[in-house]
Amino acid sequence: MSNIKNAFAGGKAFIGFLTAGDPTLEKSREYILTMEKAGADLVEIGIPFSDPIAEGPVIQEADLRALAGHTTVEDVFRLVEAVRQTSQIPLVFLTYLNPVYHYGAEAFFARCEKAGLDGIIIPDMPLEERDECAGAAKRHGVDIISMIAPTSHDRIADIARVGEGFLYVVSSLGVTGTRDTINTDLKGIIDTVRSVTDVPAAVGFGINTPEQAEKIAAVADGVIVGSAIVKLIAKYGTEAAGPIYDYVKAMKEAALRGGK
After folding, report:
1. Residue 150 preceded by cis peptide, ω within 30
2. Is 44 a catalytic residue?
3. Domain 12-258, CATH 3.20.20.70 — does that match?
4. Do 91 and 45 contact (CB within 8 A), yes or no?
5. 91: which strand partners?
6. Of 26, 36, 55, 164, which residue is the catalytic one?
7. pTM of the model as a whole
8. Where are the domains of the chain?
9. ∠55-56-59 over CA atoms, to 5°?
10. Known active-site residue 113
11. How does pLDDT run along the chain (260 residues), one tens digit per residue?
12. DSSP the chain
C-alpha cells in the first residue's frame, strides 16, 4: 500500500500543487516543504509539458516558464529525491501520456519507485487505456489516480472501482483555474463513488477560497488546490514561501472546519 493513505489519516486532506522548475527546481523543493509545514497532506508535482490540455492559462504559463528554464523529466525525478532527503510527505506526479511513453512506461515507473514517488495523475489517459500503464505502475508501487469529471455519468462507478490512492473528482467542466462558484452536484458524484469503493475522494479544479474549501470538505475527503498556489509563485517568484505558507495554512484550516 502506498504512502498516499497517510494523507487522509488525519481527517480532511489538503492537497497542493506546483509545477516543477517554476521558478527553479531548488525553489520547488523549498515550496513543497513549505506546503508541508503549513499543513498540506499531499503535494502534486506537475511535470512541465508543452501541451497540457487539462490546464488553464495559469498552469500553462508555469509550464512554459519551467520549460524555458530547461526543466526535464529527469530533473523532476531528482526533485522528488531531494524532497525525500528530509520528508516523507506523499508525492504525486501530474503529467500526460506523452512524457511517460517517451521515457518508456516500464522505465518511467521504475524511476518513480527509485525516486520515492507515490502516485500519478494522467489527465489524458481514459479508463479504456489505463491498462497500458497499470501493469508497470503496479510492479513499481505507484498508484494511478483516476479522474472523475462531471460528464462521467454512468462511468463514475467503473472509474471509481479501479481507483488507487485517491480519486480526483473534477469540480467543474473545462480546464484548471480559479472559479467564483462551483455548481456541480459533487455530493451525488461522491455518493456514487462511496457506493463502490472506500478509496478517498478529493475534489479539485477551481477551488481557491477558504469558504469553498470548507464547503467542499463537508462532502469530500480532501480538497485540491493548484492554480491559486501557482499564481502566488508567479507573483512572488523566489520569495513566495511566506505567501504560500499563509495561504496553505488558511486552506487546511478551512478544510478541517468543513469536516466537523
Report:
1. no
2. yes
3. yes
4. yes
5. 43
6. 55
7. 0.94
8. 12-258
9. 70
10. no
11. 579 999 999 899 999 999 999 999 999 999 999 999 999 999 999 999 998 877 889 999 999 999 999 999 999 999 999 999 999 999 999 999 999 999 999 999 999 999 999 999 999 999 999 999 999 999 999 999 999 988 777 899 999 999 999 999 998 654 444 445 554 688 889 999 999 999 999 999 889 999 999 999 999 999 999 999 999 999 999 999 999 999 999 999 999 999 88
12. --GGGGGGTTSSEEEEEEETTSS-HHHHHHHHHHHHHHT-SEEEEEPP-S--TT--HHHHHHHHHHHHTT--HHHHHHHHHHHHTT----EEEE--HHHHHHH-HHHHHHHHHHHT--EEE-TT--GGGTHHHHHHHHHTT-EEE-EE-TT-GGGHHHHHHT--S-EEEE-SSSSSS--S---S-HHHHHHHHHTT--S-EEEESS--SHHHHHHHHTTSSEEEE-HHHHHHHHHHGGG-HHHHHHHHHHHHHHHHHHT-
| First-last CA distance in the chain | 28
> Which one of 26, 30, 36, 44 is the catalytic residue?
44
Grid cell 506537475 in the structure block, residue: 46
